[in-house]
Amino acid sequence: MTSKFDPKKIEEKWIRRWEEEGIFEAIPDPDRKKFYITVAYPYPSGSMHVGHGRTYTVPDVIARFKRMQGFNVLFPMAWHVTGSPVLGIAERIKKRDPKTLRIYGELYKVPGDVLDKFTDPNEIVKYFSDEYKRNMSRLGFSIDWSREFFTITPQYSRFIEWQYRTLYEKGLIKKGEHPVRYCPSCDNPVGDHDLLDGENAVINEFTVIKFRHNELILPAATLRPETIFGVTNMWLNPEIEYVRARVDGEIWLLSKEAAEKMRYLDKKVEVIGKIKGDELIGKSCINPLDDKEIPILPANFVDPDYATGVVMSVPAHAPYDYVALRDLGSDIKPITIIEMGEEVPAKEIVERMGIKNQRDKRLEEATEVLYRTEHAKGIMKESIRDYGGLPVRDARERLSRDLIREGKGDIFYEFSEGPVVCRCGTRCIVKVIKDQWFLEYSNLEWKSKAHECLKNMKIIPEETRQNFSYFIDWLKDWACTRRVGLGTRLPWDKNWLVEPLSDSTIYMSYYTISKFLNKLDPAKLDADFFNYIFLGKGDSERIAKNVGITQEELKKIGDEFRYWYPPEWRLSAKDLVGNHLTFHIFHHTAIFPEDYWPRGIVVFGMGLLEGDKMSSSKGNIILLSDALQRYGSDTVRLFLMSNAEPWQDFDWRETLVRNTAKKLKQFYDQVDYALKLENEIPIRDIDRWLISRVEMGISETIDALEGFQTRKALQYAFFNILNDLAWYSRRCEPNSRVLREVADRWVRLMAPFTPFICEELWAKMNGKGFVSLARYPRSDAKRINMEIIQKEEMIRDLMRDIQNILEVTKIKPKRIHLYLAPEWKRRVFEMIKAGGSVSDAMKDPELREHGKAVVNIMQRIRKDEVPEIVLTLSKEHDAISDAREFLEREFKASILIQKKAEYDPENKAKNALPMKPGIYIEG
Questions:
Q1: What is the CATH number of the domain that holds 136?
Q2: What's the CA gap between 747 and 450, in Å, rounded?
Q3: DSSP-H helix ranges across 550-650
Q4: 3-state secondary structure (DSSP) of residue 197
Q5: Final residue belonging to a domain, choices 784, 800, 825
Q6: Considering just the CA atoms, what is the radius of gyration of the chain in Å?
Q7: 913 secondary structure, DSSP code
Q8: Strand, helix or coil at 478?
Q9: What is residue 718's DSSP assignment?
């Protein structure tokens, strides 16, 4: 059952047809319900790999699904070029940097004559945006390209100017000093796109608490200052050399690395001596809050390159500290200061997770879980002076402020993870920059609105909601400008540019009107224009005249925005939860009325290649163009959508991709076979079984897709139906009428996932128009016969049981005796299903006669093991009789079905249970 199948020809044909007909261009229609979905626009500074392919295939599958459900769908795309990455790339190519030339020449396969032009950043953007667009087209993305834009166009800059002037006028942008990721070599702040390593690192603000050893300050840096009340000891690394440094007039003990970092944090630092860590072990220091003396203990886990190299120990609330003291055999007692229901929270989670020692990798997870839980739900014990009864999050803020105000604390900035490495190869540091403009995410009223927005949003996966809540609280003021790079000048201070994460927070609104703005004079797009379009404010006659359009044209632009906004879904990577996606929430609540606030966010997992993290800088990627050339678009789409759910990490493995290609060919062949088959067979139970299974699959597929569960959806829409058809063909002579009906529903069911092959098959079926615009199948509950499904499952289970016996006994069968369970056993099953007890069963006179057997069954069989429908003896007999010919053909033996055991030399009838016959095989 094979047919000619040429993916490349099919793809070229349907890409051309879709473009000619313009079927994905979204036009407002007040009579149709809209569906607007957006995904993070790409930064075109390198080639698209299969990880990018997954990112953009997910929204396309959902867009196609909703379009086929009858929604008016908008799925747009644009290019994010703001910042300095392409400038840095152009500069390194100009200098003939070997690593850069290798990445672009060998990994990205840029032709030599084109690579020579990459000294101009515009050439880089043009080349890779064109390449992205080609690959997106080849993957069959149903994008409305009429809304395409670049973030460095004058029209987009006018939009960003309006956004930032609006925020400035609301008092949400301030000037001051702020910590940033900084490259000492480039002498410039760096963003995510400027990095080789550490893209996920954020800047954490530590509270430094000044413990004293005589005149020497031990500055313990902590993210949890509220736990100072539970400090039992101090940790120093005995194997490293510390320095004594004069910091703003005080003598501090710091690791050498910390002393160097302090110089960039607007501190006067002078190293005046050195001291080995082990010289202080066994001595003591004073807690500045209560003047209690605590011991200084050794800990090799103290990293000199993280924060200050001085760590305070809180064993009741820090799993690392609890385990370290346990490993030391210390008799120090943990001091619990946060109410969480456990006596010692760190001890409880360490024991629950079975953590053995300080080298156990699960310690990081335990720390993360406890930290988040106590931050969200913890309450300071009432006995804690001045802070008792406060939620942990409030106590943390207050205590940090109080310590700093009283001179007992300070601030230190450090990356959340490392190393953070600039594309130039230099290790980045945190630097405090003065006279910087920043967004005031610390504003409590703004945070409150962001929380209100989050409360009403759908978040997928739901467990990510607490991360958003955490980051809304955690975010402090954010430096929103840079000195160099591409992008929009700050309208009131032209010395600064709006940085990339800050100019990409509400661009989803720009998509709705971009096709109009691309034709307008950017100089005339002032704040009045955007206020009218987005906020409905102003005199339309005056604004239209200023812009140079009619009032009707102005109204049309505003109507377009109001029709589409807000998006139903925003999709982006999980590493952007702490910045871009949370900024997205903040900015919408500040600028737009509540009706236009975000509705939903889906967070993506990461991509692996044969088990290792994908990384362009390390050369560990598969170019999307190579994958498409090797396997075809539908295979790539099918694999990416079935390997993992979107929020999980997926793993590109060549053996699995090749297997996916084979499965897709089977799909094509099955449908092609169904279209060619001609016979006249009356409808049988096995046909009804197949119809029932397909109808159930449709229902499950729709439910899964509504929740973005692409892997689960494909289990029902593709793999289950493929397996069911294989069973059906093995089980009986296929019915052409049934197969055609299944093919019609199956092709439409799969169209969002594998659009090219489905368009081709739809045309072969003489389907009307494009399958991409056909109605998505809806499940008909009346066509689902659960009893027939149960019967067929029984036959399959019976086959497996017989096969298992044959494998164990090595018998070559001649006769297979099947003993059916009597009716009284069926009554026992019904009783178990109803939650009945043995005493309930013993009230039945007939069941009482089989007392021991009844007790044995009820003790052995759980409620969830009882079939949903328990067939009567007669129906079970009829079902197996109908399958007798098939079973005899499969096992090349006679099948003898016995309601009563007339011949049972090994007493197998006693083993029979409802829908699970006893089996005796004669060789």
A1: 3.40.50.620
A2: 43
A3: 551-564, 582-591, 624-631, 633-642
A4: strand
A5: 784
A6: 34
A7: B
A8: strand
A9: I
Asked whether residue 432 is assigned to any structural domain, the reply reads no
- The H or E element spanning position 405 is helix 392-405
Parent domain of 296: 209-413
Q: Are strands 489-490 and 569-573 parallel, antiparallel or unpaired?
A: unpaired
Q: 3-state secondary structure string, 343-380?
A: CCHHHHHHHHCCCCCCCCCHHHHHHHHHHHHHHHHCEE
- Kindly state whether residue 453 falls inside one of the protein's structural domains: no
Q: By 3-state DSSP, what share of the chain in percent is helix, strand and coil, each rounded to 5?
A: 50, 20, 35
Task: Give dist(CA 859, CA 126) in Å, integer.
Answer: 71
Q: What is the pLDDT of residues 737-792, one digit of tens each?
A: 999 999 999 999 999 999 999 999 999 999 999 999 999 999 999 999 999 999 99
Angle at 94 between CA 92 and CA 96, to 5 degrees: 70
Handedness of CA 113, 118, 122, 124 (dihedral sign): positive
Indicate if 611 and 732 belong to the same structural domain: no
Q: Which residues contact 402 (CB under 8 A, 6 or more apart)?
A: none
86-92: average pLDDT: 91
CB 906 within 8 A of CB 912: no
In a domain, 749, yes or no: yes
Best CA proximity match to 138, nearest among 22, 21, 56, 40: 56
C-alpha span between 497 and 372 (Å, rounded): 35
Q: What is the mean pLDDT of the chain?
A: 95
Q: How many CB atoms lie within 10 A of CB 902?
A: 10
pLDDT in tens, 547-565: 999 999 999 999 999 999 9
Residues 6+ apart with CB under 8 A from 405: none
Amino acid letter for position 372 = R
CA dihedral 62, 64, 68, 69 (to 10 degrees): 20
CA pair distance 416, 921, nearest whole angstrom = 66
Tokens of 353: 């997770």
What residues pair up with 436 in beta bridges, in sequence order? Answer: 176
In sequence order, which residues have a C-beta less than 8 Å from that of residue 502 and are 6 or more positions away? 439, 478, 480, 481, 583
Number of domains making up the chain:
4
User: Has residue 577 been placed in a domain?
Assistant: no
Same domain (yes/no): 262, 404? yes
Is the same domain home to 623 and 662? no
Residues 646 and 676 in one domain: no
DSSP codes, 131-154? HHHHHHHHTT----GGG--BTTSH
Both 717 and 642 in one domain: the answer is no
What residues contact residue 353 under an 8 Å CB cut-off, 6+ apart? 362, 365, 366
pLDDT tens profile 664-719: 999 999 999 999 999 999 999 999 999 999 999 999 999 999 999 999 999 999 99
